[in-house]
């Protein structure tokens, strides 16, 4: 079960006619930029009856369209009315010249900050292991394990910071 995709231009027309735009990205991503008039409904909070009272068409979007497309079945269950996935997400919306609200002070999402911190720890551990003492390889190992556990299970100290 999936949802049909809709272009940014067609989505804008539907929004002007009263459709609802749902941003399924996490809070940190949305804080850096969002489409004016969109409502925040993080994917992790959407359940089987989240939009049962909505009768107007619903358009779901994420950053690139990947999350909405991957979770289209789940989103369809939550929206028993006419519903669509914004093709290309907010990135395609911007490329179409449509408005977004941006907060340049929050350009890097928590997930990206986590990747930078984890990558830095791994690189530092390897370099210190090469040039100072092999014991520093443990730093790289622990950072890598933290990233792996956080990514696979959504669990661990590093995942909680994202």
TrEMBL record:
The chain crosses the membrane at residues 114-133, 139-158. Residues 15-102 form the Rhodanese domain. One of its GO terms (molecular function) is thiosulfate-cyanide sulfurtransferase activity. Coiled coil: none annotated. InterPro entries: Rhodanese-like_dom, Rhodanese-like_dom_sf. Keywords: Membrane, Transmembrane, Transmembrane helix. This is Rhodanese domain-containing protein.
